[in-house]
Amino acid sequence: MRSTAGEPTGRAAAIRTVAAGGERAPYDRAMTRPTAGGGIPPELARLRSSIDNIDAALVHLLAERFKATQQVGELKAAHGLPPADPGREERQIARLRVLAHDAGLDPLFAEKFLNFIIAEVIRHHEAIAGAANPPA
Amino acid sequence: MRSTAGEPTGRAAAIRTVAAGGERAPYDRAMTRPTAGGGIPPELARLRSSIDNIDAALVHLLAERFKATQQVGELKAAHGLPPADPGREERQIARLRVLAHDAGLDPLFAEKFLNFIIAEVIRHHEAIAGAANPPA
User: Fold this and answer.
1) CATH code at position A25
2) What are the tens digits of pLDDT across the range B83-108?
3) Is the model's pTM score more than 0.80?
4) B49: closest CA among B23, B69, B31?
5) For B27, which of A52, A99, A120 is closest by C-beta distance?
6) Which one of A7, A40, A102, A115 makes the best mutation probe of the B interface by having the most chain B beta carbons within 10 Å?
């Protein structure tokens, strides 16, 4: 088990939702094991365990993606390039629609997903550009 | 190179955005290579190439996730369980917030992301439940 002593306050903030609700610690490996007595079908527990693993992978990939776009934002600010790049976004969406189709994912959902991510990235880039060029 | 002859029409539909705009084929591996003469800094091209690789991984993981939730939806419909499960969702969000914090991703964004995915999943589950129990 992992000790909670000396954890940064950010981590405490991340789990505040749970503490407020009086629930058990959220990052409990046992949570993703099939629930023996939880009253749900074993097949459902097995699928949920896979979903939890996929979600952990998604979160870690998203963390890497934002590390890359953070660098992109700093580069764009340094070169005076605009935060948004409609041509690039159009090509990204078109490519992901094809990848999604080939992987059996709804291409429209892939497009919505990328737009959701890009909106967050542009918000970050605007913050970076604003910090680099504060209003006079 | 991959031949486009005999591709299913769904693939053609997936790339219609590009065809309509007169752009080049969207799934072009060269697109993710650093652009020598594109007028963008080489470091930006390198970062974009990594972002494109991460996005392809995200799309494939999402495809797997929806395959799992599709099965969950069918199981729930078969057992008469409701499409949404607020307790499960609360635990998923709390866990992902902690994982996000540890990975350097904004926990609030991780929560928004999961809500975005869950909204789509519930939409699928409701469609499955509706198909299993058509209105009389």
Assistant:
1) 1.20.59.10
2) 888 999 999 999 999 999 999 999 99
3) no
4) B31
5) A99
6) A102
